[in-house]
Amino acid sequence: MLQATFLNRQALYLRPDPARVIVRPFKPATEPRDLNPTDKTRANHIVERVLNLDSKAAAGQLADVLENFQGRHRNLLETFELRADEMEDALLAHSTFSEVQRQLIGAYFLHEYSFEASALFNPSIVPHPDQSGIPKGSLRFILSLRAVGEGHVSSLTFRAGTIGADGSIRVDPTARLATVPRIGHRIESRGAQAAWDLKRDLASESRILILSIF
Fold this sequence. Notes:
Blueprint: E1 8-14, E2 21-25, H1 42-51, H2 55-69, H3 76-87, H4 99-108, E3 110-114, E4 119-127, E5 139-148, E6 154-163, E7 169-171, H5 191-204, E8 209-213
Parallel strand pairs: 1-8
Antiparallel strand pairs: 2-3, 4-5, 5-6, 6-7
Helix pairs in contact: 1-4, 2-4, 3-4
């Protein structure tokens, strides 16, 4: 009598991609008082310089930023404006920004960051909430990974994929443009329960998944 396959090795490799980048907040440090005896912070000096630009020069600088970065990020102008809003508490009273000034100031307080520059590891999967269109006996899943980027800063990154009825695993290609999540509100998490449910289902089918990350 043949025994069921206990271990199903997969020829699956997930490797870090340094070309995947996001924009992260940047806030200049406060200068030591002996170097800057005034109360102005570096952030306010940056804003002052932007406000001193004429409209043509400001528009030209913003166009340069977009030319260099727009192909690697989504909704850059919206991101710039949101960052300008976030910086308001750090700024002194100022005149009303024009749209271009606001976007350019927001750009000055962001920087590009490669979140998979160093490593990709610690895979964990849970069932995807959307199982529509999946063949019988298959399962769509969400894969979480720990990504280590520049400066050895860790991030949580996600992929999606499918476990076939025959035990094969397919991980979907990554999106060309990465994004940072925005947390609007928090809900009770069912992640732990979903993980246990997945382990139970796989155990009942005598399968073990091994994801090799190199």
